[in-house]
Amino acid sequence: MDVEELAERIRSTDPSVGLRAVGALHRLAEQVEAAAVARARDQGWTWEQIGDALGVTRQSVHTKYGK
Fold first, then answer.
1. 3-state percent helix, strand, coil for the chain, nearest multiple of 5
2. What ranges do the domains of the chain cover?
C-alpha cells in the first residue's frame, strides 16, 4: 500500500477501512522507529539520548530494543 492509498483509506467514512489504515500506520511507525534506534545505537548513542529523542524513558526504550 503506497502513501496516497493509505491517506485515502484514513479519510474513508467506513470505520473498518479507516481502522485498518490506522493499524497499517502503527506497524509502519514501529518499523521506522526500530530502524532509527538501530542506527542511533550503531552511531554510539546512549539509551538515554534515544529515549530523550523519542520522548520516553531510557528504560522503556532499552526494554523495547535492547535485545
1. 80, 0, 20
2. 3-65
